[in-house]
């Protein structure tokens, strides 16, 4: 089971959680306090968590304590908003097991402890990451690259020892180590992340198999060439055996746009989901990262059809990493124009998901915009990809999300 983290972090987080609970209790019993709280711009009268709870949706966000330093304001915000907490990086293989048999649990510990301290549930993101997030020993031997004819160097390493004989034992051992440390505490586990091909101007068509998968290190080691779409199945079965209470999902990005490669990827994903359900794979839902892009065409009708098809399979939808990228919008636009555009897109997308699928979880890739990777990569634009600004004030995107969830028309 998990070892206690440093006392100062536990005490800070617990104090923040207690303060948030006491504040909410005072607001519920004291009309004057409630009115004052509603008037403060950084504390909405109706939180997105409240709206999600009413719609039977878990609301949460990602956080990484080693990237984001001690931040009591952020702790308080997450205590007020989150029923689930995702480790942005702490649950990735390269972070918590950089060398075989050597574990560094600090970042995952911090995420699990944060969730516990605020009365939320932790997620585990992610076990398999087909393209990234793997330490050198969990890559293919570099000498196999010419033999396999795969031009992507990221799948190979001079230290790589991943292969048919090592892939299943290592996966099973890592799952067992996480289970031993934390128990069956995770609300959601991303068993596989970004295993389908991502088409770009620099991508190589020979990296994609006929089922749409990347011919990456996991695909090679687990026999994707021979087993077809079933190469992923054993990993879900092993994870379910260790974590019977977790929601197991396959997590993907890049299916929302009205562009050919995203429409094809959406079809490949749906084909795999349909086959997995028929084969009895223990999968509870699909994780949609939902990194939306303003200024590009959102395929609203295509996404509605996809969501309805997922629902017919009996699978839930988990929005796992939501944000909205504004970097394609004209630089001449005002901050207000950009915020309205981001809010419109976020509201449309969320309305489609809540009304055409069984949405069980809405997680933002950080609640505060300044902590999101888009803000870090485009600091000159000072973008606002998340529902709160750097001062923990709700943005128009926040209100759009609240309205989309509150206007849910789908029963159940």
TrEMBL record:
<dbReference type="InterPro" id="IPR006311">
    <property type="entry name" value="TAT_signal"/>
</dbReference>
<dbReference type="Pfam" id="PF00331">
    <property type="entry name" value="Glyco_hydro_10"/>
</dbReference>
<protein>
    <recommendedName>
        <fullName>Beta-xylanase</fullName>
        <ecNumber>3.2.1.8</ecNumber>
    </recommendedName>
</protein>
<keyword id="KW-0732">Signal</keyword>
<keyword id="KW-0326">Glycosidase</keyword>
<dbReference type="InterPro" id="IPR017853">
    <property type="entry name" value="GH"/>
</dbReference>
<keyword id="KW-0624">Polysaccharide degradation</keyword>
<dbReference type="InterPro" id="IPR001000">
    <property type="entry name" value="GH10_dom"/>
</dbReference>
<dbReference type="GO" id="GO:0045493">
    <property type="term" value="P:xylan catabolic process"/>
</dbReference>
<dbReference type="GO" id="GO:0031176">
    <property type="term" value="F:endo-1,4-beta-xylanase activity"/>
</dbReference>
<keyword id="KW-0378">Hydrolase</keyword>
<dbReference type="InterPro" id="IPR044846">
    <property type="entry name" value="GH10"/>
</dbReference>
<comment type="similarity">
    <text>Belongs to the glycosyl hydrolase 10 (cellulase F) family.</text>
</comment>
<feature type="domain" description="GH10">
    <location>
        <begin position="51"/>
        <end position="404"/>
    </location>
</feature>
<keyword id="KW-0858">Xylan degradation</keyword>
<keyword id="KW-0119">Carbohydrate metabolism</keyword>
